[in-house]
């Protein structure tokens, strides 16, 4: 589901109120209010400017000023949240043991299931839950390399959904663990 395409019949979010003239890219949260971590920063700023103007009309939306960049100490939008989260997730795979114990594999599976429920962008979370529940996408946790590649493939599934270029998963370890072979990270 794309940002802006707010599904008001969504069973997971029955409290979401019907939006009136939201700028494209603004997604509502469970409380029926625009959700910053589910929306692009620019769309959220446009919504904010529109609300400060006090009139929620499509004319105001169209005339909303182009969003300036948001200061770095503000709550994250969907992109910043995503970048930070992928950094954490890939870094977890990078520090995962080469031979994990069965107990650690169970804990990791449970972490991924819980993460997929708690991810603050609710519509991203729903898609991610669906992804990991499909048998062919079940987390592969038997070694660091398997887990690193699985995470790379999961990230690529989101890249594809967003129309972005796929990452070459044979290079996941250079990107997230060892640094690139050309030495530029040393
Ligand atoms: C679980 C999850 C689900 C998400 N779902 C959505 C969604 O439904 N809609 C939405 O708008 N946003 C979603 N996001 C956010 C989105 O994936 C991006 O993080 C965000 O758009 C910012 O993208 P970016 O181009 O800066 O780089 P990111 O995609 O955040 O990637 C960060 C860096 O990781 C590296 N990288 C890229 N792809 C891979 C890969 N496959 N494997 C290893 N490394 C890689 C690159 O060096 C890149 O610069 C989701 C994020 C997460 C964590």
From TrEMBL:
Reaction(s) catalysed by this chain's protein: 2 R'C(R)SH + O2 = R'C(R)S-S(R)CR' + H2O2
Subcellular locations according to the entry: Mitochondrion intermembrane space
EC number: 1.8.3.2
Keywords, comma-separated and alphabetical: Disulfide bond, FAD, Flavoprotein, Mitochondrion, Oxidoreductase
A GO MF label: flavin adenine dinucleotide binding
Renumbered residue ranges of the record's region Disordered: 1-29
InterPro entries in the record: ALR/ERV, ERV/ALR_sulphydryl_oxid_sf, ERV/ALR_sulphydryl_oxidase
Domain (ERV/ALR sulfhydryl oxidase) ranges: 74-176
Cofactor requirements of the protein: FAD
Enzyme kind, highest EC tier: oxidoreductase
Pfam families: Evr1_Alr (PF04777)
Listed GO CC annotations: mitochondrial intermembrane space
Name of the protein in question: Sulfhydryl oxidase
